[in-house]
Amino acid sequence: MxxxxxxxxxxxxxxxxxxxNFDIDLRFGNGGxxxxxxLLNGGEKVEVKxxxxxxxxxxxxxxxxxxxxLSGISxxxxxxxxxxxxxxxxxxxxxxxxxxxxxxxCFKEGLIKSGGDGHRSEMVLIPLIRLIK
Length: 133
Description:
Blueprint: H1 3-20, H2 22-40, E1 46-50, H3 54-57, E2 59-66, E3 69-70, E4 80-85, E5 90-95, H4 96-108, E6 112-115, E7 121-127
């Protein structure tokens, strides 16, 4: 079997696989498109945070208290948070309950930092990789 024959056979195998699962792939893709449109068209409440350091540190900072009072993730009424990263070149959307679960885990690990004006804000540091696991 020559290179072209092998390529042709692999192509048929791949196309056959895609066609057999096309309805599943289509439903999955449509679900993602519906969510993205809802987020972008105001169907969900989205709180937007811009993180200047994430592209350098590999972490996002999520405020949970300021001046001794609950704030940020502790008091948000949003359905999703959007993190604007990489000098406005990347946006990550995450459902708030999922973000809270991840933040609690990082808090328990002691990934806490103070910052902001006068270092009055307490933040949990979340490694970016944990947002997609």
